[in-house]
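To whoever picks this up:

The nightly regression suite flagged CCA tRNA nucleotidyltransferase as changed. Nothing in the input moved, so I suspect the structure step. Input below, exactly as stored in the fixture:
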Amino acid sequence: MAADGYRDDRLLERLAEALPEARAGLARIWAVLPWARLVGGVVRDLIAGRPVSDMDMATPEAPDRVMAALAGAGIKVVPTGLAHGTVTAVVAGRPYEVTTLRRDERTDGRHAVVAWTDDWREDAARRDFTINAMSCGCDGVVHDYFGGRADVRAGHVRFVGDAATRIHEDALRILRFFRFHARYGRGEPDGAAMAAITALADGLARLSAERVWSELRRILAGPALMPTLELMAQSGVLARLLPEGADRPALECLLATGAPAEAVLRLGVLARGEAGALAARLRLSRAEALTLSSVMSSIGAAPMPDPAMDDDARRRLLADEPADVLVRRSWVGQAARLGRPSAAWDALRRDLAARPRPVFPVAGRDLLAAGVAPGPRVGQALAEVRAWWMAGGCRADRKACLARLEGAATP
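Regenerated output under the current build:
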């Protein structure tokens, strides 16, 4: 057996135990593509004893031959990324990405021009970290060209080959290093990696905002967040991502409350500056931008839920904001005022989430239907009556509000 390969009879058995339907699907694909191998994360996680999700494979056959072979065996195949040599086989509803072995022809720090190859080591050499560069064939032989198994077991996240070269090929690997170190690393980070990241952090500016946010979101929602942010700060990466400033102590208080691992919630507590500008720079989705704004505004003047609030006060909050917004603000409030878990705050959130949202029961059309002429007085009357309705705990019904509204609109 080659020096870079070793047999692990238990590896595929562990896969079959964890995902029996996936093992059956692999058997069908291997019957058609016997030279294909599992690659990357699936091999890493099986060795690490972690849950497996994606089924990525690689093969020396060209994409057109892969598609023809799969289709000829009655397997559904989708050309999901032919420019990069990737097709997706679908067996029993489960996708299996199959990518032709590649080598980089040119790279610019963002994109790579690739060519096909039949050299497994050459393909592995273009991957980011040693723990992601392993592959396993249908015979159970794990091919490990760069010491990935030892690094998995040691908790050592290390670039394949020269760290600076890997980052020059794709600067996103800077953020991927922090994400993988948080999940798989133990102890001090790799010194060569940190030195290269510190020297080349300016390369992040060449990346699209969408790619940066995709990685940053996973870091924020992932484990070991505070130590990871410390490493990012030491290397200068955090200041490049959040130039307006980062309040790490505030985020640490949020984590201490047991708040959910929501990336945008954590970002809103961590980041300083204006929410709209940050959302635009990171190209957040509309929903994410609204969430970020609601979190960051709660640090300032927005009404903050509090366990001491009575029933009417809670109803007033819900009349102005949806429950999910108030629940997030409650985490911010708990972090700022308490900084630890609290049964009272948990009860407040359950109560807010369970309550029906009060809805102001009248509108301008009700005044117009009553014969009041359109104009500024309509809006003024509505505002006056809504303030009265709110002051009463949002309890007055439509009949009472209509009577109040007619009186308010009468000159």
